[in-house]
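Quick one: structure for this chain?
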Amino acid sequence: MVFVCHWLCQCILSLVPGRDPGPDIIHYREALQQSLQAIDIETLAADAGYDSEASHEFARNTCHVRSLIPPLIGCPTNKPPTGYWRRQMKSRLHLTRYGQRWQVETVNSMLKRLLSVKIFSTTRKPPFPLIPSNTTW
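Got it. Here's what it folds into:
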C-alpha cells in the first residue's frame, strides 16, 4: 500500500493499494498524480524506496513538485550518486525539511493498526475493501 499524506494535518491525499509484498516505487506515479488532484503540492518527501532519477524527473518536470528523496539505493560507495537530482540530494538533503517525514510514519502506523486484520491475514482472499467502513478520517 502506498499513500501520500499532508505533513501538517496528516490527511491522506491518495492511497494506492497493493496486493502482494513488492517494491512501492511501481505505485509512485499513480499516488503522486492522485494526490495532485486533491491539493497543490509544493514539496514531496519520500523514503529511500522511491530513490531513482526517474522519480525525481517525474515529480519535478512532469508534476512541478520539488522532490526530497534520500539517495540510498545501490551499493555503498564514496563516489557521488549518478544522475543530477540524486547528486543534489546527496549534498543538500540535510539542508531541507526532509526531517518532517517522520509525521508520515505516524499515519503509516495508524493505518497498519487499523488494517492489521486485512494486511496480515493468512488467506489468499482479496483484501478489499482495504479501509474498514467504520473508519473515520
